[in-house]
Structure formats: C-alpha cells, structure tokens
Amino acid sequence: MPRLHRICVLLAFSFQQYAAAEIIGVAGGADPPPPTLGPYAMTPFPLDDRPLYELVTDVPSPLGGAVEFSDPLSHRRVVEGGGWAFWGHPYYGDVYYGDGILDYTMYLPAKTMAFYFYAHQAADSFLWITATTDDGTAVEQQVPHFGGAKYFGFYQDDPGGPPIEFIHVSCSYECEVTVGEFGIAIPGPGALVLLGVGGIGAVPRRRC
Questions:
Q1: pTM for this one?
Q2: Closest CA to 43 of 186, 191, 188
C-alpha cells in the first residue's frame, strides 16, 4: 500500500471510531430486561449479600469494580419483609432506596460500554424519572407508583468510543427514586481489538 493511501485509511478509521461515537439511551418500559443492549451481551448483577436496610455507597459489579452512589442509599429487596413490596415484573433481587434523597448520581466501573437499571418511586402519583449520562444523553419515563419499575438503558454505539462514566437520576417532583436490577457490559480487550480490525477493513479505500 502506498504511504499516502495508508495514512488516509488510518485517518478515516480514527474519525469513524471517535468523532462518530455516541451514547444511545433506551426507554425499555416495565418488561423484564432483554439479554442484550445495543451490540452488547449484558451481565446481570448477582444477589447483594449485605444486610438489608443497611446504607450502602456502592454495589459490586460482576465484571469488576463497583457502581458507586453519590449519596448513601438504603439496601432493600423485592421480597416480603425486604423493604420493597412491588416491582412490576418477576424480580426478587436487590434495590437501593434514596430515603430522603431526591436525586443522585451512579458512577460506573471503568470501561463500561453498556449499563441498564430499573427505577421506581415511592410517591403515590404518576411522576417522571429522568436518567442522564455524562455526555448529556437523557431518558425520561413516567413511572406510576403502582405501575412497576421502568427500564433505563444506555450503551456506547461505537465499541472504540469512550465508555459511560456516570448516570444522574432525578424525579420530576419531590420523590425518592429507587434503583435496582442492574446489568452491565465491559467487553474484554480481545473483543475491542477484533472490532477495531473489522472497522479498518470496512473503510472504503476509494475515499482516499
């Protein structure tokens, strides 16, 4: 390959991988989570074995690291006596209640390319919950108290682009938002290299 031709291909790949990178938000409603989010296979979080009703500042991730909360949240579970009675679909795992906290931020583990969670609220009303990522991508859904928790998903559409760093959660009115039923994707280095090679090959050479 001539030297100029090779430089053009590399520049085209660089533009495709970084300038076009975008975080996509998904409002999934009240159904159970699908196994994938965008191009990523998702890993659900296991049961949190810490005591119920304990204030926690993070949740360990099954792929390493932890989801860290900007404010301590009360650890509850969707079971009888677990501190949260209704979730809307068959889920009997952990949730984290902002007792007296109206909005907060979830800081994600390094290299997170996709993340989903469900959000519920304790007020007896039809309120809107908004989740916003570090790049400003926002998902807003109406979450009625007796209508079940809603799915909020975010993924980086370019596997070579920057990861998702944090998600800010807030409510349209003074309500305490509960989050839980997390899923995450942190592709390994081998997967990213493979996708990168495919991206180079996909650049049409005639553009240079």
A1: 0.81
A2: 186
